[in-house]
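A quick aside before the break. I want you to see a complete sequence-to-structure record at least once, exactly as it would be stored in a machine-readable document. Don't worry about memorizing anything.
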Amino acid sequence: SSGINAEYGDYDLVETLIRSLSSKCHNGDPSVQCSDDLTICTLSGPASVLARKPEILVECELTQLNTLRYPQGWSLVEGSVEDQDCVISLDGVVVVGSDLLGNLYHNFNLLLHTAVSLLFASTHLTKTEPTILILDSERSNRFPELWKIFRTVTYLPKGGCVRVEGAVLALRTRTEMDLLWSPITQPLPEGSKMLRDITGRVKTALLPSPPSPSHGILYVKRTTNNRQILNEEELLSRLRRYHTVKEVEFDSGLLSFEDQLSLVSSHHILLSVHGAALTHAAFLRLPSAMFELYNAGEEHCYRTFAELFGVKYYTLDRRDVRVTYATRPEGRGWVTPKTGNYTLNIDRVLAIVGQIYLDLQLDVHIEL
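That is the input. The structure line, written in tokens, reads:
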């Protein structure tokens, strides 16, 4: 990807994709066209078949198409529809892969990519809101609530095929995360209007009324064995001398996603170490700030994410973090900052939190 700029990060992305569409096949068949970045392909004309086959777009010349990650062996088969015993037929559809078993970050990426594809389809292909076809079973969806922003969602599990006409294939490149991972080449001080509208739709669908605002800090604890803050008890104790702090565990299963969303939407400030929980920052009350206590060596991941959603981003300097690596048996995976645990410079944390309140112009007080 060439990176996200002011145009790429907003609705003009759809127009950019439309302008770049061209045929990618040996025989020049116009029914299969792809954008230059190969994130979206369109099917038009005679119905095509999606089936569990080893090839994808078998008639096309671009070898890059073979590197696209398509879920569970599903692929597009050019050929006779009559030869396929397909369970359903859809006209006007966005076909997406699945990362439904992944964490919230991966699900959110898939959701945003699908939403962009939906905008593409509704403005270019079908002129109406098409069906979202997810190539997986509904039982695999860890965050089904996210998908309530779409009018019609159909699941297609393994073992079958579907006839599609007037479709957009929401293909993803090897990085899977083009929208949220690419560096931003121009400032987006208020974030991407397109992406903020999408998160707004999620809030509207799941929260019947906005929660009461809180000027406190939402602190997300990790429940895994890695990326633990070793001096966390002291950190929280000192934070509470000056601020209201709400501790929460998002991966413990104690809160529904609606409850998580309500809690996040009431806060302006989110603190945690590097991990999928920081994805919740997209739903913070504006003005908002994400304090990634330690980025675990991923310098651009959530910094880019925050800027795209109009969230101010803060993190500790590497000198203010001491990483303790657990002893790992030989051959049992890489030892990286992500696999370690951390001791933080608490004085520096408190200084940055104070700066956050100044930058957001929020009152500093302890809520009773």
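Two observations worth writing down. The first strand starts at residue 22 and ends at 23. The longest helix spans residues 104-125. We'll return to this after the break.
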